[in-house]
């Protein structure tokens, strides 16, 4: 099947040269904290949107949640920890509502 592999390679090179495909296509996905915290059923949709340069608000919220969790883990004084806990709780509630709405809308 070497000839088929060669033909696929040529087709990909032509698509890249024509601007129809990015050179990074086919590389492994970058798995970060936001990816791991994204519900599995939404990961591919969000990844496609990210590749198209369109980040849904939920992705930004997931990244912010990861940042808040890290900040909370590193906070040393109780006042800061309490402020971060409140922010995280509000964010998680907002995120849960948005993700549930996406799931519900996606099932119709």
Describe the overall structure:
By secondary structure, the chain is mostly helical. The chain is 75% helix and 0% strand. The chain is built from five helices and no strands. It has helices at residues 2-17, 33-37, 40-51, 57-74, 78-107. The protein starts with a helix and ends with a helix.
User: What structural class is derived from the secondary structure elements?
Assistant: mainly alpha
The arrangement of helices and strands along the chain is HHHHH
- Count the domains: 2
Separate helix tally = 5
Determine the fraction of residues in helical runs and give it as a percent range: over 70%
Strand content: under 5%
Cα gyration radius (Å): 20 Å
The count of DSSP E runs of length 2 or more, i.e. the number of strands, is 0
Main beta sheet, described? none
Quaternary organisation: single chain
Low-confidence stretches: none
The general outline is elongated
Overall average pLDDT: 82
N-to-C CA distance: 43 Å
Brief description of this entry?
With 108 residues, this protein is an all-alpha fold. It is 75% helix and 0% strand.
